[in-house]
Amino acid sequence: MKIYKYRKYKRKFPKLFKKEKSKLLKIIPNSNIKHIGSTSVPHLGGKGIIDIIIGVKKNEIINSAKLLIKNKIIKQLI
């Protein structure tokens, strides 16, 4: 089990998310990308990891996942 260390909120989190969102939109243009988790809440500490959720239409799920694998964003489908 991996143990995470608590980290204070950093003002750079929204900027880091925007950078990742931009990269993801180039791979999956018609997706809905949101910043979630503790780093999305100003002044809330946490793991310090930018959590992102990607929404696509049901008929685009498999193709989108394959594009994420091809671009080394994820390693495999579960």
Unreliable stretches: none
Following the backbone from N to C, one meets helices and strands in this order, namely: HEEH
Mean pLDDT metric: 95
For the termini, the CA-CA separation is 20 Å
Instruction: Tell me the strand percentage band.
Output: 5-15%
What is the 3D form? globular
**Number of E strands:** 2
Which structural class do the helices and strands define? alpha+beta
Residue share in helix: 25-40%
Query: What order do the strands of the largest sheet run in, or round the barrel if closed?
Result: 1-2
**If you compute it from the alpha carbons, what radius of gyration comes out, rounded to the nearest whole angstrom?**
14 Å
Largest sheet: 2 strands, antiparallel
Query: How many distinct helices?
Result: 2
Describe the structure.
By secondary structure, the chain is an alpha+beta fold. Helices cover 32% and strands 13% of the residues. It has helices at 13-27, 61-70; strands at residues 32-36, 51-55. Strands 1-2 form a two-stranded antiparallel ribbon. The protein starts with 12 loop residues before the first helix and ends in an 8-residue tail after the last helix.
